[in-house]
Amino acid sequence: MRKVPEWLRAGFRLVFILTLNVFCLASAPAAHAGWSALGPTGGSINCLTFDPHSPRTIYAGTRRGGVYKSTNGGTSWKSSGLTTMNIAALAVDPSNPNILYAAEHNDGHAVLKSTNGGANWAPANSGLTVPWVYALAIDPASPQTVYAGTDGGGVFKSTDGGAHWRCVTPGMILDVRTLALAPHSPQTVYAGTGGGVLKSTDGGAHWTGFGAGRMGLPVWSLAVDPTSPQKIYAGTASGLFKSVNGGASWTASSGPTGLDVPCVALDPANPHTVYASVYNRGLFKSGDGGSAWTLVGPSHQYIDCIAIAPSGPKAIYAGTEGGGVFKSTNGGANWTIVASSMKNVAIYSIAVAPRSPYTVYAGTWAAGIFKSANGGANWTAANSGLTDSGINCIEIDPSNPQVLYTGTGGSGVFKSTDGGTTWKAANSGMAGSDVLSLVVDPSHLAYVYSGTNGGGLFRSTDGGASWKALNLGVSNLSINALALDPANPQTLYAGTYGSGILESTDGGAHWNVANTGLTDINVLCLAVDPVNSQTLYAGSLSGGVFKSTDGGAHWAKASADITNFSVKTLAIDPSNSQTLYAGTGGGGVFKSTDGSMTWTAVNSGLSNLYVDSLGINPGNSHVIYAGTDGGSVFKSTKGGN
Asked: Exposed e or buried b for every residue in 388-417, given b needs 16+ CB within 10 A?
């Protein structure tokens, strides 16, 4: 599965901090006429938590979709504000379930608080010097006391319900991914860090753990046995560990061992029953405190969080990366998906079939490929044969819409010859690559180019059956975008991170730097004018849009109206090449009708402004699809207006 590179995360953080004013901290506005949300349903779930007084009320913190709330045990969900935010943790006040805290990780909002069950939110950040928060914990004996685990700043504590915070780990540069309080002694606080577990027995005044108790491993999750608080379980980057002496020492569990364990949870009715997720393998269960384990599913899911109903009907919820929420009412023996009303899928790529324009494909961050045969009204998974669920790009053969190629986040290229019904690996010569971009030569359909993340460029001359590196001048580069000159497909452009734009006039055999006038060499997307191939456009990480009118020899800034946003995707109207669309990271969709001289935001109804991909119906260019990071697919039938 594709992981976002640290350089890209860091760049987006800077952009996001500069543009916090564009976010609404209240409930999402109602959709308007411009764009409508289509699906597919599901999404990436970072955290789950219950209302302790109403076990059928559950909150889900999502990746780029904010907070969802269900009051009927997951049967239906409703967006509960903070749309487009990446919610890393949630905590409900045990004495007043209307009070809810959310930890935001990515956009610099840190901690937000709701006093009406998630209907409205406000910042609760005074004193928090680190804007990215991973974990939250509330003292059940004194609910005004809240702890926050931060990205690089250690642990912060508030004693007035989030109104003010202070660091309780001064001088410690720590990533704190998880927090746990001893159930009957909440002054005892455990913090899972990038190097093991820290412990405080006085509410954070003093800490121990970097001595005998240190595991030397990143700790993702912690669970304390409420009946025997000296027993603690830790999910780490290398398996599950257990302590029987309050964290003084740790031993590796008999299973799962050596594997990434994102979450661990104990059955509140029987703490000897332990659940632990293993990355990409599903959920394991132990009935004897961690000695023996059984895989209980949902299998082959990236499970990031587990929540077990504190009372009432036995119910276990598993939040996945890309697959939404699963629920079991029989201890994990059977599972059902309960995310039918969530539209929270991260869409990295959109492809519209050129000769069948109602056929649309959506490549996702962690749920594979979805296909719609009716313009996005309905979606079905199209993953048979795909062994990698992270999809970076989709390319359709321009003469045969049944032939598709997809680039995955670590398994190279896959090919379908039946419209996505089945897929086969097409990786000979480049297996294991993180493929960021693909393009098919329209004059030689067996010629396919593949740009990779750090591995340079590959070319296939036999429709993906075999690949050869074409890396003279581009080896070790991350090639985010590829574009061919439609008038002369031997001319190929590559947009890279850190090296700008490269041009080849011999089908990729040799490359020249084409950066004159380009003030941002972190290029995320490219587009070539279909009418005049000497006109090119490039979208960048922080410089907006650039335009060349001489085949890339010179570039000039062409986005004075797009400020402080990364431009992640570009699309040119096939019926009028003076009309362009730019999808941005945080600013939604911008439209130009004069060849990029001026731009206007066209976001009415677009509740998620992180647009990673765009697709235009070739038969009716007023129909546009926008793939968002955490909001699934949106559609406009009026050119975005």
From this structure: bbbbbbbbbbbeebbbbbbbbbbbbbbbbe
d(CA 162, CA 208): 25
Q: Which residue has the higher pLDDT, 256 or 302?
A: 302
- Token digits of residue 548: 């060349």
* Lookup result for tokens 């006391």: 145
Identify residue 488 by its one-letter amino acid code. N
State mean pLDDT over 280-296: 89
Closest to 196 in 3D by CA, of 230, 219, 173: 219
CA 366 vs CA 68, 203, 229, 344: distances in Å: 19, 38, 36, 12
CB proximity list for 205: less than 8 A, separation 6 or greater:
168
pLDDT tens across 307-352, in order?
999 876 789 999 998 889 999 999 999 999 998 788 889 999 999 9
Model pLDDT for residues 143-153, shown as the tens digit of each residue: 999 999 999 99
Q: Extract the runs of DSSP E, i.e. beta strands, from 237-367.
A: 239-243, 251-257, 264-267, 270-278, 282-286, 294-295, 303-308, 316-320, 325-328, 336-337, 343-344, 347-352, 360-364
pTM metric for this prediction: 0.85
- To which H or E segment does residue 157 belong? strand 155-158
Distance CA 553, CA 430 (A): 31
Q: Which residues contact 467 (CB under 8 A, 6 or more apart)?
A: 413, 427, 428, 429, 430, 450, 458, 459, 460
Q: What is the DSSP string of 12-42?
A: HHHHHHHTGGG---SSPPPP-SS-EEEE--E
Structure token pair of residue 139? 């003292």
